[in-house]
Amino acid sequence: MHPVFRHRLLAALTLSAILTGCATLQSHDELASDMQATHRTAGIPAALAKLEASATTESDKQALLYNLERGELLRMEQRYADSNQAFLLADTKVKEWKEATQTNPDRLMGTLGAALISERLKTYEGQDYEKVWLTTRLAMNRIAQGDFDNARVDIKRTHEREAVIAEFRAKETLAAEEEAKEKGAASGSKEINGYPVETLNDPEVLALKNGYQNALSHYLAGYLYEVLNEPGMAAPGYRKAIELKPETPVLEEGLRGLDDRTSFTWKRRQRMTDVLFIVEAGDAPARKPKNFSLPVPTGNSIIAVSLSYPVIEPSTDPLLTRVTVGEQDFALEKVVDVNVMARRALKDEMPGMVLRGATRALAKGVMQDQLQKNAGVLGGLIGALAAVTTEKADDRMWRMLPGRVYVARGYLPPGEHRLTIDGRPVDTPIRIDGQYALVPVRLYHNVALVGQVATAGHLPESASPTPVAPTAAAQTPTPAAKRAARANRAAKAAAPAPAATAAPATAPAATTAPAPAARTAPAKPMAPVASPAVSSAPAKN
To answer: Rounded CA gap, 457 and 432, in Å?
Structure first.
């Protein structure tokens, strides 16, 4: 074969490989954005249908990210059993990843070779915080179904998974550095000149201990162990939540009041339900590709090679502040910001990502130079096209997660209640009962989705119908309630004291003193019974 023809054939084959490879570089960001737009106009079933239409093969239907997204959409529809099936398929992939980290970590680190072409060609293992969120979501689904025992198992697996992630990521970073040195690449800020590093170095991002642990998962662990009457196991969960999100009153009260809530005395006096509100708002962030140009020396020349890195913009959504039930306000405390977690995870990934990018730039620069030398201008153009077309930042993320998660906890009498969140009425009422109740709410665009309310334990029967008043720390009286209380105190102060002879000698005790339970009950949070009867009740329309 003539050398010129051979070189041009090589260039043509290179172009064909590029076009074929592009089919595997589809953007998840585009799919997720389409799903969210569909939900706004046609609801969750239509968004779910769009997602399912994207899975055209059996392999697609078993994929990790597909089942993460599908499980979340099904959860939002309160289809908890179907949601668990999807999440368990995703969990199978995470278990495979976990096993590989322990038995054959080199196999996972071998994905670095795929990064010589594009980050998107790597097998999607899930963001580390997504692996932790997965078991947390399974636990929340099971709690909604009343399956507290299996929820306990999921919580335990969350802690184990965090330890595996920490160990593996340390090994992965070291492997990336060694491969880059072998290829002649060097790490350094010059390789990402122009990157908006302020998105990775703002105070919220730097305040996080790492990019995968979150306060909700550990607070939920403490709450669940408390409900199951295991205070010794509950305390570490509450303590870890405080460590991850310090100076958060609702988290601090969880630990501070634990002994009182689980005391035998309090169990006998409890008259109102301990209600935990988990309010989720907004959308998980997107990873948007940003292109950079890196000069690569090749022999006697320098070739500009395109590189692409993901950027996550900070959230601009307003913070939530309170949930109101009747005349009572409960402070909403932000315990998780998925946007900040995603940026912290990206910050932790960037050293390895930059090193892989430098390695990839060298490989593409050499390829482009050789094609130009052997196939002339056509080869050079094809080499440049190959470098640009295959250089796609990995935009895969679990996009149906909420953007932020808030927690409030306080006391309500059993029965039906209506919620207002920052002045916005929630159409669906809730019904609570028992010693404990967990109320999940998702604010998704213009819709407030109230999940199934889970209850646990039974309130003791009381001779007095008067409920025990909640603590002032747990809930704040509304202005109207404060004014009424002041007026009541003023009226009592103005009233003259009755003459001693006016009281009948045979006056019953009930007219001279409040009921013992109402007078002596401590102003403390509530505790579960020793063996709580677990049930779940759907919110009524």
So the answer is: 11
